[in-house]
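Whether sequence alone determines local backbone shape is best considered at the level of individual chains. When preparing material for the folding task, we compiled for one chain both its residues and its backbone structure tokens. No coordinates are needed to read the tokens, only the vocabulary itself. For completeness, the protein is quoted in full, as a sequence line and a line of structure tokens:
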Amino acid sequence: MVQIHILGLSGPGARGVVGQLDIEWVHFIWNAWVLVALVVLLPRFRRNWWLIGVALFAGWHLLEHAVIMSTYLRTGVVGSPGFLSAGGLIAGGLPLARPDLHFLYNLAETIPLLIGWKVELERA
């Protein structure tokens, strides 16, 4: 986000600190592992509504990456919008570029996950 919005970079110059990992497969697999980890945690922490909410949202995020991956596998085109970023499949998406939308997705997963962790620490 710093590279895009502060330094004004785009394309390969804005691929993050570890740009070699900024590929569709890594995004898809990472989001799949997040959802798997949450599904493993949920039976143990059934009353933690933060984890339940994050699991639902992580499912949506993985579905979004599945659509992006599908486009990539069919066309070889990297960086398709998926469902909700600008140009997306649902009503043309929101007025957000894909990096911005997925940054918000990651915040919407990380913050409740940390809150859920804090809730469980307080219960213990």
Observations:
- The chain has one domain: 23-123.
- Residues 49-75 form the longest helix (27 residues).
- The mean pLDDT is 92.
